[in-house]
């Protein structure tokens, strides 16, 4: 019985890497993209503010300059407008102060709602957080608290299978963005977005995955 148990554990150890490589894109949609040069050129500051009412955690995990560039490229990719679901495009909403490609599609309490993770979206929430900490009135509703969490990770695969396609020698960038705000007992919003970008050996994107239907709740 003990041998059988150890054999089962060993088999999990072998299979788990394959399962892990598929999990980042589960629940996401593969979609064509456009590249934003202006986003790529933004210098995004990593920071950690854990104390106070307006917390921030921005963490890009890379081990060299190549990986850092790939993460920045992933942040600068946007879905093509023609490929977006109509509810995400929202033709009645004109994002104030934005140039195409747009990263927001609504607003709540005077704060924009991100429809896709991008450098400009991250920077926007970072600047809102800083303004709130400095007691500046930058929102329509008074924010009692807010929390910004952004992580970017990258991993290299000699072989990678996704959406029925087998790829070789690729780098997979996984981006996760979370924003929450509280403006009263029945006044709150949360945004949670994911984006996965796969790059080939020449550091060119070959696939973009986003979550076009989820990630936004209000109360």
Describe what you observe in this structure.
With 219 residues, the protein is α+β, with helices and mostly antiparallel strands. The chain has one domain. The chain has five helices and twelve strands. Strands 1, 3, 4, 8, 9, 10, 11 and 12 form an eight-stranded mixed sheet that branches. Strands 2-5 form a two-stranded antiparallel ribbon. It starts with a helix and ends with a strand. Mean pLDDT is 85; it is low at 1-22.
Overall spatial form: globular
Computed CA radius of gyration, to the nearest angstrom:
19 Å
Poorly predicted ranges (pLDDT <50, ≥5 residues)? 1-22
Number of helical regions? 5
Integer average pLDDT: 85
The first-to-last residue Cα distance is 52 Å
State the secondary-structure class.
alpha+beta
The string of secondary-structure elements, in order, is: HEEHEEHEHEEHEEEEE
**How many domains?**
1
Helicity range of the residues? 25-40%
Q: What profile does the largest beta sheet have?
A: 8 strands, mixed
Strand content: 35-45%
Outline of this structure?
By secondary structure, this protein is an alpha+beta fold.
What order do the helices and strands come in, and which of them pair?
Elements: H1 2-22, E1 29-30, E2 33-35, H2 37-40, E3 48-49, E4 54-60, H3 65-75, E5 77-79, H4 86-89, E6 104-108, E7 111-114, H5 119-133, E8 145-162, E9 165-182, E10 188-199, E11 205-210, E12 216-218
């Amino acid at each position: 019985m003990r041998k059988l148990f150890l054999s089962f554990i060993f088999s999990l150890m072998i299979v788990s890497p394959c399962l892990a490589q598929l999990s980042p894109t589960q629940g996401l949609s593969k979609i064509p993209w456009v590249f934003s040069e202006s986003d790529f050129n933004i210098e995004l500051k990593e920071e950690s503010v854990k104390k106070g009412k307006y917390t921030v955690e921005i963490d890009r995990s890379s081990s060299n300059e190549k990986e850092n560039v790939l993460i920045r490229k992933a942040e600068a990719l946007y879905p093509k407008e023609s490929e977006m679901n109509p509810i995400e495009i929202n033709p009645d909403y004109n994002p104030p102060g934005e140039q195409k490609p747009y990263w927001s599609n609504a607003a709540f309490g005077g704060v924009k709602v991100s429809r896709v993770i991008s450098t400009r979206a991250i920077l926007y929430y970072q600047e809102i957080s800083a303004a709130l900490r400095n007691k500046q009135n930058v929102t329509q509703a008074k924010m009692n608290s807010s929390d910004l969490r952004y992580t970017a990770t990258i991993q290299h695969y000699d072989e990678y299978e996704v959406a029925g396609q087998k790829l070789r020698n690729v780098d997979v960038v996984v981006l996760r963005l979370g924003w929450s705000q509280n403006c009263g007992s029945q006044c709150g919003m949360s945004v949670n977005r994911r984006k996965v970008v796969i790059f080939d050996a020449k550091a060119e994107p070959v696939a973009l995955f986003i979550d076009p239907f989820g990630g936004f709740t209000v109360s």
